[in-house]
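Render this sequence as a predicted structure.
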Amino acid sequence: MSENYLDPIAVGEAIAHCRKKMNVSQEILSGLADIGRTHLSAIERGARKPTLETLYRISSALNIKMSEIVIEIEKRL
């Protein structure tokens, strides 16, 4: 894998890990983050990459720092 490539699967797995660690469903998180559940599902599957704005909304909805999600992503790269 190129170092200049952010693997969308790693991003999705990291977000799903953080969500599950907080014991929150996709439906609840998408509502709290004000994003569509299908959009969140696509992000967690690696079909889409979140924008910084979306990543911020997700982290805020989980009441964690965005950097915690980034650390989880880095663990998977």
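Summary. The longest helix spans residues 8-21. The chain has five helices and no strands.
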